[in-house]
Automatic annotation (TrEMBL):
This is Probable membrane transporter protein. The keyword Transcription does not apply. It is a multi-pass membrane protein. The chain crosses the membrane at residues 38-66, 78-97, 103-121, 142-166, 178-198, 205-226, 232-250. Belongs to the 4-toluene sulfonate uptake permease (TSUP) (TC 2.A.102) family. InterPro entries: TM_pro_TauE-like (IPR002781), TSUP (IPR052017). It is found in: Cell membrane.
Length: 251
């Protein structure tokens, strides 16, 4: 059985463990920080293996997020996002079938930076009640890009974080809506990932070793979320998203 676990250097295991902790933190406090976990997994593991391994850890994190914030979701927003997200997932699957790893990383990095710039620009404008992210155009744009990036590289979190920030969701509504959104999306991706060979017995054993890190991160994130101020929360999400996007472009 142990032969199925990747033979990695101690420093590589340490980085993967840190990435697992960040997965937990991202699910219960700072969604944008998950892009750093994507970067670490992609740097240490083969591209396909990293996608499958990270997906399973994200699902574990989703459980903690739902336990913490399930009552705070904005269901009307989730229902309105469905058509755009489905279209994005389909487009992401087609892109994944033809693009190499380098193109995947760079395209997602560019999308994230454009989303950040657009969101910050929107927040500086004088807008009507309901927030800049509540309109149909924003819903289609963010939803389709969120579906695309989550299918391609489990990187939908930063995109949807920018949407929820643009819509000016309070911290708990933000985290509750994101929790349900990604719990459903990530579970739906499991059969596809198994069929593509992204989830294997080796992947399951690797995740079994790393799951305690997700647990620890989830509790740390819960502690942060109960104490963080709205403005600090929003800028932390933006900063983490920028760091991850830059890495995808130059890494």
């Amino acid at each position: 059985m142990t032969s199925l676990i990747p033979d990695l250097a101690p420093v590589a295991w340490a980085l993967l463990a840190l990435a697992a902790v960040l997965v937990g933190v991202s699910k219960t406090a700072l969604p944008g920080i998950n892009t750093l976990s994507i970067a670490v997994f992609a740097a240490i593991l083969p591209a396909k293996a990293s996608t499958g391994a990270l997906l399973l850890l994200l699902i574990v994190g989703d459980v903690f997020a739902l336990l913490s914030y399930r009552r705070h979701a904005d269901w009307a927003t989730l229902v309105r996002l469905i058509p755009a997200v489905v279209a994005g997932v389909v487009a992401g699957a087609l892109f994944l079938a033809f693009a190499d790893d380098g193109w995947v990383r760079r395209v997602i990095g560019v999308i994230l930076l454009l989303i950040i710039a657009f969101t910050l620009w929107q927040r500086r404008r004088t807008v009507s009640a309901g927030g800049p992210g509540s309109g149909r155009a924003a819903r289609i744009g963010y939803g389709s890009l969120g579906g695309f990036t989550t299918m391609v590289a489990n990187a939908g979190g930063p995109v949807m974080s920018m949407y929820f920030i643009a819509a000016r969701f309070p911290v708990k509504a933000f985290l509750g809506t994101a929790a349900w959104f990604f719990a459903v999306i990530n579970l739906a991706k499991v059969p596809v990932s198994v069929g593509l060979g992204l989830i294997t017995p080796s992947t399951l054993l690797l995740d079994l070793v790393l799951v305690p890190g997700v647990f620890a991160g989830a509790f740390v994130g819960r502690w942060i979320a109960l104490r963080i101020e709205q403005r600090t929360f929003e800028w932390a999400v933006v900063a983490c998203t920028v760091l991850g996007a830059v890495y995808l472009l130059v890494g």
